[in-house]
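Supplementary Text 2. Reproducibility record for the structural model of the 282-residue chain.

All settings were left at their defaults, and a single model was retained for analysis rather than an ensemble. We include the record here because the model underlies the residue-level annotations in Supplementary Table 4.
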Amino acid sequence: MRVLALLDGTIVDPQTPLFRADDLGVMRGDGIFETILVADRQPRELGPHLDRLERSAGLMQLRLPERAAWERATQAVIDNWPWDTDPQMALKLVCTRGIDGGDGTPNGFAMGMQIGADTLRKRSEGVAAVTLERGYAPDLKERAPWLLLSAKTLSYAVNMAAMREAEARGADEVIFTATDGSVLEGPTSTVVIAQGRTLLTTPPSAGILEGTTQGALFRAAEKAGWQTEIEKFPVSALFDSDGVWLASSVRLVTQVRSIDRTEIKADADLHAEINRLYESNY
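Retained model, structure tokens:
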């Protein structure tokens, strides 16, 4: 199931051509995107997602259509989704730089998609993860902003290669590490750990995306009396913590059950509490 909307709100057939062959998003992955969970017609963290889209565009020096256009396209997809048969969808917002040699006019759309069975399995059963080197230091973002380390770009070849490597090792997910042995993020998720009643995650200054789902979880946790910290931590903390989760918009707050073939703490009651905290936002 797909529902596709242009930025003027027009619904178009998702099986008909939308991009020219010389669009820079097609030829070079020159563009940005966001993926948003929509549950019972309500987009979760739409504002933070649009904020992050704007930050990515700024880093890319990409001319982004106005926010109202994205909101219009989002609403058009929501209005045309078959909610009676599917109460949740993944809504993807995509913007490319436009055609090669053109005037810089961007090409954008919003598309609603069904949530796959594998994603639902990971939500309910948890995941096995492997640590893989990302190949850069945690201060590289500040030293080399042209590498776009905290932009959510369409250039996901490395991220998908990492996921294939995880599969080859018998795992579901990846946790990237920096050259100093600190934890970065997953290819499509934010890493969160619990140490007692404190939740920790890596700072965006380390060259990772600022997590929207992680942000929602931390807001709710703080209201419930938890402590939250955004600071660098080593790989060893993954094994010493009271719980590890990968937070993402569609997989939500997914529990990690093993890392590098080693079982870690994965308390069912703590996981249920973490999920209740996140869901309390909605």
